[in-house]
Amino acid sequence: MARRLMATAQQRRLERHIARHRAGRRAQLTWDQSGAAEAAHDATKTPRPPKTREGTKQTTLIAMLREEGGATIAEIVAATGWQSHPVRGAMSVALKKKLGLVVTSERDETRGRVYRLPAA
Prior knowledge:
The radius of gyration is 27 Å and the shape is elongated. A two-stranded antiparallel ribbon has the order 1-2. The model has no long low-confidence stretch (mean pLDDT 80). It is mostly helical. It folds into 2 domains: 47 residues; 60 residues, Winged helix-like DNA-binding domain superfamily/Winged helix DNA-binding domain (Arc Repressor Mutant, subunit A, Orthogonal Bundle). It contains 4 helices and 2 strands, in the order ααααββ.
């Protein structure tokens, strides 16, 4: 008798699990369909330029790279107080990937590697 009760309890748990899974799948299907419509609606919007706050280290970095001579890693480290690896990361991730800016670098005989952004 106890074994039979256990089997039915397991069956009930399994049925509840399957019902939750199916309900979640239905919700996922309706979300995917509405997500496609929302993406089509977003495609018709005009893109806005990314917002940047004034007075941040990122705006300092952008301003230094847009100057006539560009900036070296050592100059950026001195201006922002960052170490050299976060400077490289900020140029790679924040400027290139997130803001879509084109950072160029050139080897200078006196200053070393100089990084630049095109003038805005």
